[in-house]
């Protein structure tokens, strides 16, 4: 099939037309380029090669499975024989035998591992939107359930916009946490997802409502834990909810670089404790101190209450308020605006430390906002863990990305088979999931190798990017591709569809069929 040009402007016009019909970037239904004969351009075929240019983890699993799993019961898909499918990083251990461009270094001697080796019982609990964070990421990038560890997932709401249910499944999560407390687990970690999930929406009223809901369930969980003698730690993985509007007065929907709160509550102490300021890597050493467990040498964080004694046989409840940063105390902060009497009580009755949760403190680039993955892996590891974006960006700068043997082998294989190369690209410059810099670098490599047929499949962001920014980003990408002189942008679909993480396979089917079968709203 003849290459029709670089395609970004074509898709940009189709996106603008979709905006007029009420669509948004995050949930954009599939848009598919067709040629003058009405045939979809650049569909993925047997013998082709695909490089999935996203790097993070839990949101990439379902789409990866749709292309690679031998058994896939979720929907009828076309099994593409002889397809090379490359992932940037190993975001699940089941992909260990796949071609991985940047293989991971798994974190050892994590908090969960120390607790398990001590023969203690632990519970990891969250709703499905953040379940991977209290399991896979909290455990150092491992999907293995440790001896003595119970993992519990509560289903997040399905089929409705999240800002219409700002409470999400927190009431059910709180019930399960209280059940875990009564069962007497030695350690419980739970994630309250609301601050991040609702913080990513542009609905300020929903943000205020979600803060009030978190406050209500935080009180019932903490007060029961105190009654049962637990030492309670309340912190967050990164900021988000605490900022309602950006500099131009538009709704703020992204993560922040703000520090996060840290409370340490011991019901056996007459006077409140005074933890020092620090960073997320200091949480695990503090918990080990409470549990009277030795801190391993690989865990380089330091206790936030040095020298404090807690006594033998103590238990810990760790509550991670996802996306709950420390913001300004004014109307720009939904947490401050909301009715949060218990949070106000905590602020007045206990000493709140400030933990760094972004940038170099959590293994990200300097000045970069934190994210849930970096936050949870740093909390659970008890050390600063270098994140994939830093590893990949360093590879881009030192030239090792362009020399990566997995990429070169994939391009060469496609050429030898007479197949095309397909790049699945997140349309963003700066996200923890990816960057358009990766597909651009791969296009240059394909050009140098002499591969002429390369197609780019766009995944619209709508989280790390401002709502409505996709057309401008597409036209900018189109211009960069024109300079390279290779590749065609052939379709686009929203991140909320292509990067689902909650088992909504009807969404995944749309993404898969748009790329493989050319199903979707056609444009030229």
Description:
The structure is a single chain. With 524 residues, the protein is of the alpha/beta class. It folds into two domains: 8-103 and 390-523, 3-Layer(aba) Sandwich (2,3-Bisphosphoglycerate-independent phosphoglycerate mutase, substrate-binding domain); 111-384, Alkaline Phosphatase, subunit A, CATH 3.40.720. 34% of the residues lie in helices and 15% in strands. It contains 17 helices and 16 strands. It has helices at residues 8-20, 61-68, 111-117, 131-137, 170-183, 194-199, 204-227, 283-290, 334-337, 341-349, 372-381, 388-398, 405-417, 437-449, 470-484, 495-498, 505-516, and strands spanning 31-33, 49-52, 84-89, 100-102, 122-127, 149-154, 187-192, 231-235, 260-265, 278-279, 316-321, 353-356, 421-427, 454-460, 488-494, 521-523. An eight-stranded mixed beta sheet has the order 4-3-2-13-14-15-1-16, sandwiched between helices. Strand 13, helix 14 (437-449) and strand 14 (454-460) form a beta-alpha-beta unit. The longest helix is centred in the middle third of the chain and has 24 residues, at 204-227. The two termini are 15 Å apart. The model has no long low-confidence stretch (mean pLDDT 94).
SSE order and pairing:
Layout: H1 8-20, E1 31-33, E2 49-52, H2 61-68, E3 84-89, E4 100-102, H3 111-117, E5 122-127, H4 131-137, E6 149-154, H5 170-183, E7 187-192, H6 194-199, H7 204-227, E8 231-235, E9 260-265, E10 278-279, H8 283-290, E11 316-321, H9 334-337, H10 341-349, E12 353-356, H11 372-381, H12 388-398, H13 405-417, E13 421-427, H14 437-449, E14 454-460, H15 470-484, E15 488-494, H16 495-498, H17 505-516, E16 521-523
Helix pairs in contact: 1-15, 2-17, 4-11, 5-7, 13-14, 14-15
